[in-house]
Amino acid sequence: MEGHVYLKNSADQSILKYFLIVKGNDIYCYTSETKRKLKFMHSLQGCYVSDLLPMQLPLMPSISNSPVETFFPVEMRLSHICKRMLLFSDDSIRQMWVRQFKEACEQVEFGDFYRMGDYLAEGSFGKVYKGYHRDTGRIVAVK
């Protein structure tokens, strides 16, 4: 998958546009579509991806009255000490990238396999809900 992504410039907090590619389990970020200058690359093996709430950010924070735009962020936790935030201009584009990232990371979610049902009771370790296996329909207890 290929497309544009936005990142905050660490020096002045401005929002810069880059070109992103996911190949297999790797992510490549270039300064432009020409793919001549690599900004960064990471292996996505074992990383964790989460989408965050939309945020309003000034395009050029160093300039007063800078235009503000809504961005849809994705946080990629690459290790326990390294994380990167990618910004997208549209939520539907972000959701396509999130699916691609999760596939590349081999990240699975509870909701991929089970559907939550009604509250059943409270046990010694927390609340218990009825759950349903998405493929088999089997009923399970979920804490």
Account of the protein in words:
This protein is mainly β. It folds into two domains: 2-107, PH-domain like, CATH 2.30.29; 112-142, no CATH class. The protein has two helices and eleven strands. It has a four-stranded antiparallel β-sheet, covered by helices on one side. β7 (68-77) and β8 (83-88) form a beta hairpin. The chain is elongated, with a radius of gyration of 19 Å.
What secondary-structure arrangement, pairings included, does this model have?
Elements: E1 2-8, E2 15-23, E3 26-30, E4 38-43, E5 48-51, E6 55-58, E7 68-77, E8 83-88, H1 91-105, H2 110-113, E9 114-123, E10 126-133, E11 139-142
Antiparallel strand pairs: 1-2, 2-3, 3-4, 5-7, 6-7, 7-8, 9-10, 10-11
Beta-strand percentage range:
over 45%
* Physical arrangement of strands within the biggest beta sheet: 1-2-3-4
CATH topology of the largest domain: PH-domain like
Mass-distribution shape: elongated
**SSE-based structural type:** mainly beta
Q: For this structure, what is the CATH class of the largest domain?
A: Mainly Beta
Multimeric status of the protein: single chain
By DSSP (H or I, 4+ residues per run), the number of helices equals 2
Q: What is the CA-atom radius of gyration, in angstroms?
A: 19 Å
The helix/strand order is EEEEEEEEHHEEE
In the predicted model, the low-confidence regions spanning at least 5 consecutive residues are none
Helix content: 10-25%
Largest sheet: 4 strands, antiparallel
End-to-end gap: 36 Å
What is the mean pLDDT? 87
The strand count comes to 11
